[in-house]
Design a protein that fits this description.
α10 packs parallel to α11. The chain is built from 15 helices and 25 strands. It folds into 4 domains: 126 residues, 2-Layer Sandwich (Alpha-D-Glucose-1,6-Bisphosphate, Chain A, domain 4), CATH 3.30.530; 100 residues, paz domain; 151 residues, Response regulator (Rossmann fold, 3-Layer(aba) Sandwich); 65 residues, no CATH class. With 545 residues, it is of the alpha+beta class. Strands 1, 2, 3, 4 and 5 form a 5-stranded antiparallel sheet that branches. It is flat and about 75 Å long.
């Protein structure tokens, strides 16, 4: 018997209350509801015109001999209610003077003029402002900018919205001078049959609109810090607020649940479990690390197998004011690098005796939002150095001292080094690496990454933990991991899925080569399934020991 229709019916019944009182994100078994009114948890300001609201994931799941309600706390980013102009200014402050590319996508905004309200859906944010965007006007006998349009004194159109939906030549101009004609981009709310562009300062953001774009690293960190709680805290949140806001409580049950006789038990299920003894990592040192639950200290430890560092170079990125190092000739730079290499050498790695060449790249400030000029500056600096030295002295590793946490520069740097120059890169944030209090730990974390990238072995598990994998029958065991990532909400149309595979190739299970395939978008489900199966087949065949 197919029980899915019954599960779907229970989903609809139990979610009726939350659908009316909360903001729903997702569908079917992936439904989440968010509530601005949660009494114990105020919205969290994420910056960039965004905030995070708390809510709950809720789904009906069939289990052994019973049906259970799965509830879990969650968080999601939302647009800050209010002026679209203010939200854009916040986004620009977070993105070097540019509005984030994902900001405003499918966002509903409201315009009000002469008492007349209209709701629009933003199709895209333009790269031009009201001062640089123009259209042809019969009344003027030529082109007129959007800023000039709104500054005109005559007004024959009954409302601003009617003026927008008519041809500009058939209406007069509203007497509405703009405050930010050159500071904010226009928003496009209609592309066909004819484009409609509205200044951001005339738009208001209605409440409770989720943000589906990519978050900045700062916003992501804020959400993770707020959403990470101990299980007991999550349990209390579910029982104190979850049942109430989801309409599952004694006093808040929905009429739909009462009509169908559906009741959710308020006691959480008790599941038997046991704590497995943790394996013990072994390093090359005679002494064992100092362990605590879930963590251990790498201090004074040696790698199980230290890598040999090939020819290497240091790339110093500079941007604006406030750089930790002034450039390649900064007197504090070489002692800083010496402290790092000393820790790596003490951990078992082997560095060349000569000091590495230091390359400097000063990134332009007047760049586009995609940091095209900055990435080209990095490419030029690295290419110039590589071409200026003999082939035997070309670096196979570049230690990059980053200017800041600009993700676009970082991605461009990785693409340039990995795909164009074929060299390893390891990045450092000088602001964190020069902190005397945490420098040892920071250097240690970078050393762990560096040793693995160069073919070393950081640690292995103790013999007792690995014995069952090294038995005669399992001596050729391979650990394999396969996953598929699909394009998320807010992705461009036609974005492919990515199928990836990793597999161990050594008896210590520490070396995992990886392979990746793009799964082309399909017009129908059948062809998509064929593409998915063939991708996995290709990936599986690509692993050759």
């Amino acid at each position: 018997m197919d029980i899915q229709p019954y599960i779907s019916a229970l989903q609809l019944v139990t979610q009726q209350h939350a659908r009316k009182t909360g903001v729903r994100i997702g569908r079917d078994s992936q439904t989440r509801f968010f509530f601005r009114e949660l009494t114990l948890h105020a919205p969290i300001n994420l910056g960039g015109g965004l905030e995070a609201l708390r809510g709950f994931f809720m789904s009906i799941r069939p289990t052994y001999e019973q049906v259970m309600t799965n509830i879990n706390p969650g968080m999601a980013p939302f647009y800050v209610t209010g002026s679209l102009a203010n939200a854009m200014f916040e986004s620009m402050r977070e993105n070097r003077g540019f509005v984030h590319p994902d900001f405003g996508r499918k966002l509903k905004v409201k315009t009000t003029y002469q008492g007349y309200e209209k709701t629009w859906t933003i199709q895209k944010v333009l790269m031009t402002t009201a001062l640089t965007t123009s259209f042809y006007s019969k009344e003027k006998g030529g082109n007129i900018t959007v800023a000039e349009y709104f500054a005109q004194s005559t007004c024959t159109a009954p409302s601003f919205n009617e003026a927008l939906t008519r041809a500009p030549s058939s209406v007069g101009y509203p007497n509405c001078p703009l405050r930010y004609p050159s500071d904010l981009p226009l928003v496009c709310v209609q592309e066909k049959p004819s484009p409609i562009h509205i200044p951001a300062e005339l738009c208001e953001i209605p409440p409770n609109q989720p943000y589906f774009g990519q978050l900045s690293s700062t916003a992501t960190t804020k959400i993770l810090e707020s959403a990470t709680n101990r299980p007991r805290v999550n349990a209390e949140m579910i029982m104190k607020e979850g049942f109430q806001y989801l309409g599952l409580g004694e006093d808040t049950s929905s009429p739909a649940m009462d009509a169908f006789g559906v009741h959710v038990d308020h006691k959480m299920s008790v599941v038997p479990g046991r704590i497995l003894p943790p394996p013990t990592p072994r390093y090359g040192s005679a002494a064992a690390p100092n362990f605590s639950p879930g963590t251990w200290n790498f201090r004074d430890m040696k790698f199980q197998q230290g890598a040999r560092v090939p020819n290497w170079a240091v790339l110093v990125l500079l941007h604006g004011q406030g750089n930790v190092f002034s450039g390649a000739k900064d007197k504090e730079l070489k002692p800083f690098l010496k402290r790092f290499t000393n820790l790596c050498t003490k951990s078992g790695m082997r560095f060349p005796s000569a000091d590495p060449p230091i390359i400097e790249a000063r990134l332009p400030s007047n760049d586009d939002r995609y940091r095209t000029s900055a990435i080209q500056t990095i490419r030029n600096a690295l290419t110039t150095h590589v071409n200026s030295v003999p082939a035997s002295q070309r670096p196979q590793l570049v230690l990059v001292l980053l200017a800041d946490e600009d993700s676009r520069v970082y991605c461009g740097l990785k693409r340039t080094c990995d795909m164009e120059l074929g060299v390893h890169t390891v990045g450092m944030q000088p602001s964190k690496a020069t902190n005397a209090k945490g420098q040892g730990m920071y250097f240690g974390n970078v050393a762990l990454k560096l040793n693995m990238k160069l073919g070393g072995m950081n640690h292995v598990l103790d013999d007792a933990s690995m014995r069952w994998l090294r038995q005669e029958m399992l001596r050729d065991t391979m650990l394999v991991g396969i996953d598929v990532t699909h394009a998320g909400m807010g992705s461009k149309a036609g974005s492919p899925s990515l199928a990836t595979i990793v597999a161990s190739v050594d008896h210590n299970f520490t070396n995992y080569p990886a392979d990746l395939r793009m799964q082309r978008p399909a017009e129908n489900k059948e062809s998509k399934e064929v593409g998915r199966n063939s991708s996995i087949h290709d990936l599986t065949c690509a692993i050759n020991i």
